[in-house]
Amino acid sequence: MRSPERWGLLAGALVLVVVLPALNALPPGSPLRVSDFTLNLFGKFLAYAILALGIDLIWGYTGVLSLGHGVFFGLGAYAMGMHLMLEIGTRSVYGNVLPDFMVWNQVKELPLFWKPFYSVPFTLLAVLVVPALFAYVFGYLTFRSRIRGVYFSIITQALALSTWLLFNRNAMNLGGTNGLSGFKSIFGWSLNSATTQRGLYVATAICLCGAFLLCRWITRSPAGRVLIAIRDSENRVLFSGYSPAAFKVFVFVVSAMLAGVAGALYVPQVGIITPAKIGVLPSIEMIIWVGVGGRGTLLGPVVGALGVNWLQSFLTTTYPDLWLLVLGGLFVAVVLFFPDGVVGTAQKLITRLRPTIRAGAGAGTVGRPDEGRRPEEAKPQTELPHIQAR
Amino acid sequence: MWRSLVLALALLPGLAAPAVAQGARPSPAPPSPAAPADVVAKLLGDVASADSAVQEAAAVALGKTGDRKVLPLLEALREGSVYVRSLPGGRKETVIVGDKVSEGDKALVPLFTAYGREPIAGPDGRPLLADLATLAEVATGRSLRIAIRPLIDAFAGQNDLVNPDPAARRAAATKMAYTGDAATLQLLEAALTKESDRWVHFALEEGAALIRLRTGDPAERVIAAETLGRLRSANAMEPLYQLAGDPQAPSPLAAAAQVAVKRIERWGLFTQAIEIAFQGLSLSSILLLMALGLAIVFGLMGVINMAHGELMALGAYSTFLMQGWFATYFPGHFDYYFLVALPFSFLVSASAGFLLERGVIRFLYGRPLETLLLTWGVSLMIQQGLRLWFGAANVDVTSPRWLSGGIPVMIGVQLPYNRLFIIGLAAISVGVMYLLLFRTDAGLRIRAVTQNRGMAACLGVRARWVDAGTFALGAGLAGLAGCAITQIGNVGPELGQNYIVDSFMVVVTGGVGKLAGSILAAIGIGGLNKIIEPGMGAVFGKVLILVLVIVFIQRRPSGLFATKGRYAES
């Protein structure tokens, strides 16, 4: 790894984790102050970036397009939301220990599966384990029977649709169409206070850095190289004696856990989770964040999640009619003209502009420097992962 | 709406020239008895009485005369447009007033006679206009309005029983059965002797028995219960069920009711099974219509077309446009708009598909995941385009008259024409596709390119044009499906999204590139959906089907009929 890049990443992390919240903590009225609203919005985007990293892991590196990541995001978000609902206690509108929507639906007793969510450790565990378990079962069933390519995409899309349908039902006792909302506090801290929100932002930023390091470690490990090999030619990997299914299940589970964490961080910052966040459309929108940013790079999904969501929040407030057209256009443009995304294209340009610098490392990092090619391991150009069968 | 309009037109000459029309009608109206003039005159006076009991008794007595000229008065009483005017010499006359005509600051109203609602002429021979302030309004209470309602219904029913349209006669008989009394019974039985249509006959018989069951003497009621059981009347289920469980009912009646309930219940199960099978078939054909286009494009070209749903929506909106054009330019031939809309929507969607293929998709062959994302983007743009153009709300597509209604095939089962039409359309589409693919030159080329593009190209097949044509064909089929959907569902910008996942499930389950697989999968998924739905609800049904599909794919990873060749292993 080139050290300038490492320094760059470190500086970026520092800005996200320390500088932004510090600017937010400035007294109101000072020119450099970042407003609570902006920081909160940014926190939401960073949560999305964690999710995007997970998607990049499975799509950008392993070549498996999952159109159902909204489900895992939703599972994490609902797990956290359920705890926050219970934490409201009798401060709710009806003053009942039961969440308001249950009173509304005339549920007399807390359903059994809600009860463990009183406990904080259980909730934090559930945020990781529930999506992971679900992804494991689903991934095991599909990858084992060698469902791949578009088949997998379609099946996951159907998964997103049916989960969305299920979560919309009042009979599920998860708030139906209105979802979970009206939270008051998280682990005892009031959600209305700017300090709590700042703390949540910092937690999200730290989680993002952690997720980034985790993904970097995975993609640079030998296992990560098998993932790339699976993307480029699954059959060859299979015939070489590896079990692509096992690797795919592993990466699917990791990616689902990241989505779950993202969901759990999203809920307290936004204050509401509804089934509309886990359906078919949000699931496929997540893909475009990664696509725009640059799949197969680790910086790409972060940049894409921030950029596309910023664009969305800008357009939906100023030109609401345009947003879907722009989103559709992004899909078309990314596929046709920028398959490497912003970061991938930028890296290509940089490499082309500096062909002589560190010839060995440079040759090894064409297109996707983050794929973990150490200089001494650089291989001839012909086997570069980006030259894949398309 | 159209039906009632045409009906009204058909009835118009009948109203104008009763003598001529009576000969023309299939079942002439029973001559309405003219009530004795002196009795009517007294009752007309009583209707205006301030004593509500006298008033109500008079109104009911008028209604019971069965004289049709009394009907306008009853209706006017209900609307509150009955007034009393003073005549010279201290006499009072009950009159009906028409719509207000303003003249200066006075509210003038035309007057009509209470009996028969004929315009009252003034001294100058023109219709008499009276100042509303000089008239005394006849107060009508709630109980009076409740009392006249069945009388008005009876008159309406009497009219409808001789309606030339069998469906209207049937509806009238069923309606009268609920509110009728002994007088209605006579009407029904009189109609029964003249009725030739099987289903109206059934409804009349059912109605008569229902009234007897309610109002007859004990022996009659037993017979009525038995008759209803024999008729397997679903409408009689409720009263019979109550009778069967009623401890105060005479025991032979309760026993007869119990037997009848059992018979009706058994029949109900049978008809329900038939209905579920029919609904399953109908859903299957919708899925098939959609999946057919998808399967051709996916199977033959390896392209996942996420915009298929939006191509369908384009077809549906084309139908909407065609309907608008017909309503504007050929209102007389409105019912034929759908016949023109079918090929039109095919062409619109096929051209859109052609442009899509030539414009973008051809750059992406062999990269199915990229195509999937691209077509999804295109679908979002089409969707938003439709929303901006036609508005976000659903648009209204009226069924042509020949597609509304249905064929009653047996008691309690009616097959709607629009569903039958869709089943037929799906069958024809499959047949034509089969012939096209396996019996024509073009089909041969398509199959050749599918099996081995390079070889086919070497042999002179213009592979690119085959691609474009195949894609346009698949898109056109989507348009056709969209056109058909307008007859049974809502047409809105989200139309495509509602069906796309289901049709993909059909394609995945059926296996790629096999028509037979798609047909079987469509029938399987559609049928299963309708079988599960009544027990578990639509949502859990859908989820269960997804689980079943995943389990099924475990056994058969490439669908029901696996293709051997290029796409078997990508």
Written description of the protein model:
The complex is a heterodimer of chains A (390) and B (570). By secondary structure, chain A is an all-alpha fold. Chain A has one domain. Chain A has 15 helices and four strands. Chain A has helices at 3-24, 36-61, 69-88, 100-104, 120-144, 149-168, 194-220, 222-232, 234-239, 244-270, 280-293, 299-318, 323-336, 341-353, 359-364; strands at 180-181, 185-186, 189-190, 272-273. In chain A, the strands form two sheets. Chain A has a two-stranded antiparallel ribbon with strand order 1-4. Chain A is globular. Chain A starts with a helix and ends in a 26-residue tail after the last helix. The model of chain A is unreliable at 359-390 (pLDDT under 50). In chain B, helix 11 (237-245) crosses helix 12, helix 12 (251-301) runs parallel beside helix 16 and helix 21 (515-536) crosses helix 22 (538-555). The two termini of chain B are 55 Å apart. The A-B interface holds A 63, 65, 141-142, 144-151, 153-155, 157-159, 161-162, 165-166, 168-169, 235, 280, 284, 287-288, 291, 321, 324-325, 327-332, 334-336, 339, 389-390 and B 298, 304, 360, 363-364, 366-374, 376-381, 383-385, 387-388, 497, 501, 504-505, 507-508, 539-540, 542-543, 546, 549-551, 553-555, 557, 569-570.
